[in-house]
Design brief:
alpha+beta, 7-stranded mixed β-sheet, 16 strands, globular, binds fe (ii) ion, TauD-like_sf, oxidoreductase, TauD/TfdA-like domain-containing protein, iron
């Protein structure tokens, strides 16, 4: 079942004026803490998404090295499992293929919405999923270190990564959930980890919210906590921009 986002922040107030900066931050922090994501709408022309993201932390380069990426259909990538086409993306966390910490936040904002059906970003709370696990399963996902690999599309672009991580990592500041149904190497653990990965995917199907963008809308989510995916679409003019933001350690 698909639900509409319940963590909405209007960037203009009841008079249509831009929300005061301190109110914006207080509301953003509160919604992020509670829901793990914030969908920002009614965005005034004066709002600068890059400057907003800078206040959340340092930017993590995209695979291509750029700090502010584009998500739009790219020629030659139609046949791959890849954000740069119109196909669906399955639930995953960002940066499970990084050697170190995955980005803490991901920001996506809309330069040009798609016409027609589809194109929603979907999100569900993987920390909440982890809390549904029995003690033995949770301990297994914290202790067992798996090999992970990049997607075929990334290998096609010349990046072949093989980091090793558990699915659940107890970082001092927050639980980190890494997840990919396809790109975790299951090996001899298929019988144990296969059903757990399927359980997470079913949890996502039952609990996700779906975000459809208007121009300038911005979604920010806690990538250590939330899984995200995308519905397929047909309009090749759809254009989002994308920033990955590093974790800022608690002082
Ligand atoms: Fe992603």
């Amino acid at each position: 079942m698909t639900r509409q986002p319940d963590s909405l922040l209007s960037l203009t107030d009841f008079n249509g004026a831009p929300l005061a900066d301190d109110l914006l931050w207080k509301s953003f922090r509160g919604l992020m803490e509670r829901h793990g994501y914030v969908f920002m709408c009614n965005v005034p022309d004066t709002f600068d998404p890059v400057a907003f993201c800078k206040r959340l932390g340092d930017f993590v380069p995209q695979y291509t090295g750029v700090l502010v990426g584009d998500v739009t259909p790219e020629p030659g990538m139609e046949e791959f499992y890849h954000a740069g086409n119109t196909k669906p993306l399955y639930p995953h966390s960002e940066g499970y293929d990084f050697e170190g910490l995955p980005p803490r936040y991901l920001a996506l904002w809309c330069e040009r919405p798609n016409t027609g059906a589809g194109g929603e970003t979907t999100l569900a709370d993987a920390r909440a999923w982890s809390e549904t696990l029995g003690e033995a399963d949770r301990a297994y996902l914290c202790e067992r270190v798996f090999a992970w690999e990049t997607t075929d599309a990334m290998r096609h672009l010349g990046l072949d990564l093989h980091p090793e991580h558990p699915v659940l990592e107890e970082h001092p500041d927050a639980l980190i959930v890494r997840y990919s149904f396809n790109n975790l190497v299951r090996g001899d653990d298929e019988d144990i980890v296969g059903p757990l990965l399927a359980d997470a995917r079913e949890y996502f199907e039952r609990h996700h919210v779906a975000v459809q963008y208007e121009r300038r809308d911005m979604l920010v989510f806690d990538n250590w906590r939330m899984l995200h995916a995308r519905n397929a679409f047909t309009d090749t003019g759809r254009h989002l921009r994308r920033i990955q933001i590093a974790h800022r350690p608690t002082p």
